[in-house]
Amino acid sequence: MLLNVSYNEPKIKKQIDDEVGVPFSLRERWKLGGIGSPKLIITHASIDIHNLLVLDNNLDSCNVELRPKGIIVRFRSILETYALVIPYYKLKIYKGKAQEYSMYKDHYCIKVAATEKNIHDYFKKINIQKINVLPTRLEEL
After folding, report:
1. Are the CB atoms for 23 and 86 separated by under 8 Å?
2. Is the separation of the CB atoms in 34 and 121 below 8 Å?
3. What share of residues in the chain are helix, strand, coil (percent, to 5)?
4. Other CB atoms closer than 10 Å to residue 67's CB: what's the count?
5. What is the tally of structural domains in the chain?
6. pLDDT digits 0-9 by tens, 29-59
7. Residue whose C-alpha is closest to residue 77's, from 57, 53, 41, 42
8. What is the CATH number of the domain that holds 93?
9. Taking the model in full, what pTM does it have?
């Protein structure tokens, strides 16, 4: 779900917490080695997100926050902040090119450039967290 999170609205905060869980505690953040991504440059986006990004002339960038049951991709357009809330069971991550990652949820898509090693490490952390959270498949029992 794509939400405008510029303002502190309890209804929207509850929606996000229900979808991807409440933020990690400080102890869990230390254990994970941080939950936030470095600044990610957006190279391509689905039409809904693209229509928001073209409203200003700034560099299209975003950041990703890990949550217990999913991730939140935040980006800015004009003076508003938007969040794409993606639970792990709907998250698809592809590495098409050597320096690009694609994140998909239903009909939403964001492709980001991965020019530094710490960005590759962050996407590995997302995949590890996703594997740890998803239930065991029936074939594995």
Report:
1. no
2. no
3. 35, 35, 30
4. 22
5. 1
6. 999 999 999 999 999 999 999 999 999 888 9
7. 53
8. 2.30.29.30
9. 0.91
